[in-house]
Amino acid sequence: MFVTGSSHSNDAKSMSFMQAFDVAVEHTFNRFISPLPAIWKIKRFFNIGSEKKYKQAIETVNQFAMDIIKSKEAQTDSMTKEDDLLSRFMVSSQDMGLNNEERRGFLRDIIISFVLAGKDSTATALTWFFWLLDGHPHCKDLIRKELTNIHPPNVTFDELKTLHYLHAALSESMRLFPPVPINSRLTVHDDVLPDGTFVGKGWFADYSAYAMGRMERLWGLDCREFKPERWLDGNGVYQPLDQFKYPVFHGGFRMCLGKEMAYLQMKYVVVAVMYQFEVEVIGGGGTVEKMVNPPYSLSLLLSMKNGLPVKLKKR
């Protein structure tokens, strides 16, 4: 195999970006949970230790995003609202009254936010899904049965829409193990929540999708069980539930723009893997007993500790 100098350079830049992005995410989380914020603020002031590494990572991430923007700007003549998502934002931003520097900063933040939302969240969700599926063989059998009604590997969008049990199983997996387990918002004005709770300006308002997914008041006595059936009606058709009861993709005006794309990607991956392979989790999957003390590693994402080692057997 031959690699041109340009391609190799791009690969190197991508690797540098991905490593820098992981470093930035890790240090952002460490700042968030630091019991003594003064420590990291002092490090930032003197540009030493972890804060120096964080600054370097941010510079790499920002430069990578800017390179993408400049590359797209070079294609301005052929760019329309029918092109890719970034191109659509670029066209729309022309009417926002921003100067060139502000506009590029806005587009940079758009790129970074989409990478942050989609880079590891889908992979994290699928990791827990296959772990749970290995511990619940009857659910695996029902998904395989459903796959007999479609035609892998050339699966169409319409065929994916018919996989109601798979959709339910993915939703149930994320109910128990949401990729982003905790979310926080900072209030800009005094406010009152719907239940009458006062929230002052400058307060943090946090919610935990992980905890909410295990609340008997919301999900019943079987809330800690993996039961995809809770998402299906009497005819086996998937039924979405209240977004504020299931805030895995947020809710209201903050609903995740990539929700449907995330489901689509996960379905494609599951169909491709399960059509070709038997997946056996080394050490056993997420049985009822193991779900009592799941092997998670908390950061900005609810990652699985030490990953998910599996054996694949060709079907």
Automatic annotation (TrEMBL):
PANTHER family assigned: CYTOCHROME P450
GO molecular function: heme binding; iron ion binding; monooxygenase activity; oxidoreductase activity, acting on paired donors, with incorporation or reduction of molecular oxygen
Family: Belongs to the cytochrome P450 family.
Cofactor(s) for this UniProt protein: heme
The keyword Metal-binding is assigned to this record: yes
Protein name: Cytochrome P450
Domain of life, per lineage: Eukaryota
Lineage, broadest ranks: Eukaryota, Viridiplantae, Streptophyta, Embryophyta, Tracheophyta
Annotated keywords: Heme, Iron, Metal-binding, Oxidoreductase
InterPro entries per the UniProt record, alphabetical: Cyt_P450, Cyt_P450_E_grp-I, Cyt_P450_sf
Organism: Artemisia annua
Matches recorded under Pfam families: p450
Binding positions (heme): 256
